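Task card 7
Instruction: Convert sequence to structure tokens.
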Amino acid sequence: EVQLVESGGGLVQPGGSLRLSCAASGFPFTSYRMYWLRQAAPGKGLEWVSTISSSGNTRYYTNSVKGRFTISRDNAKNTVYLQMNSLKSEDTALYYCATDENGKQRGQGTQVTVSS
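Output:
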């Protein structure tokens, strides 16, 4: 059974930083691209944020987070990370890690709220 458990969210002021983690199990993690998605509000669609290749050598970002967010992974720990710097109010969302870009297999999410 695929399990994805996100953590690290919280309340942060604009300009602050957070590091999200996603612990994965139940599938061959080292063979999978991994994704971070976010949902700004209940009922709104999922927005793709970032992707990392199985080896970690290739990374992609949506334009709105380029230069501020960094995706990484530790294949020895079956964990993927999202380092978020220079946070803005528009980054407020429920953040998910997923094994696919549509979020069909994703965790329960971790809430990030950027507010003064």
